[in-house]
Request: fold
Amino acid sequence: MAKLKWGMIGGGEGSQIGPAHRLGALADGMFEFAAGALDHRPDAGRKYAQRLGIAADRAYGDWQEMLAGEKDREDRIDLVTIATPNSTHFEITKAFLEAGFNVLCEKPMTMTVEEGEEIVRVAEASGTICAVNYCYSAYPMVRQARAMVRAGDIGKVRLVVTNFSHGHHGDATDADNPRVRWRYDPAMAGVSGQFADCGIHALHMACFISDDEVKSLSADMASTISSRELEDDAMVNFRTEGGAVGRLWTSSVAIGRQHGFDIQVFGETGGLRWASEQPNQLIYTPVGGRTQIIEKGEGGLHDEAQRLSRVAIAHPEGFPLAVANIYCDLADAILGKVRDGLPTPSDGVRSIAAVHAAVASSKADGAWTDARPPMFR
Ligand SMILES: NC(=O)c1ccc[n+]([C@@H]2O[C@H](COP(=O)([O-])OP(=O)(O)OC[C@H]3O[C@@H](n4cnc5c(N)ncnc54)[C@H](O)[C@@H]3O)[C@@H](O)[C@H]2O)c1
Reply:
């Protein structure tokens, strides 16, 4: 079977997420890297794309040139990844969807709720596949956790506790470093810093595993480094549509925590725990029973987890292969197989609505605030 053709915008040399997309997209031989506009500097982007093996006529200087160059080709790309800074996601995603391309957009999908709702509508109207890169949800043991919740292994979910807290922006003497500073500058980052950057991964994960949606929230956001306009720490309490209680802490000043993304889901008859720094194990405790470690690759996993496990039990799989799982599901979806679990534009707009609700709540001393986008109220 011919490979699907894949292109990327952003993710240029030295970028944080570009390598994970390249490793992920190419891991299973489903896609070939056919086109790119990889850098905000046109020449640097063209040169880097060619060094990565893209033909000169498909190594574009910017996304508009890429859209114009690809749209009428017979062998046009089957999927484009948008891995540029946040404020550009909306216009690039919308333009490619309107031209009939399938899109994988980095999170956060948009900066505003209105833009997010627009992407949901455009994706629906275009009949294309649009996904948002909540890649942590594609770890095999996260899929196992969700399948266990769906199978009733922990009963009705009562409580979700999740953290995404690291300490990499905790050095006040480094706060003016341009790679750090923009994240706390509203002109570049929008209304929220740390919650929009990392907190939404945790919020998406809480909903993904518990198969539920956030309804309302109460937030306390703080800029612990006082020169920062946007928050570098947030505590968000939430309630779900299904009646569960949620507690979420996200921070970038938690010195000593490296990645710091973990989640616990407590139900009426059991509890589950997963941490991104030990992604191959899922901890399960049935009520009144012993705590068990469920390992990626062992027998008896749910199909969802088994099909996304690549190497034998106890052989570590990590972040790029979780991203690869998103690409596997996208390839299957493009080839007509329905794949449950791909993060959708609805997930994207729900996240950005929660971000705006959290900012409003924090400004109102933690007042409980509707966290749903108007289209889902
Ligand atoms: N899903 C995840 O776990 C995850 C992890 C990290 C970053 N991200 C997201 O990925 C996106 C990129 O983040 P990053 O940390 O890689 O940023 P980065 O600053 O390290 O890299 C951004 C890249 O995009 C290029 N670029 C900028 N504007 C462009 C434009 N208009 N056209 C083409 N290329 C352009 C830059 O030259 C650079 O190569 C952000 O939205 C971020 O939130 C997601």
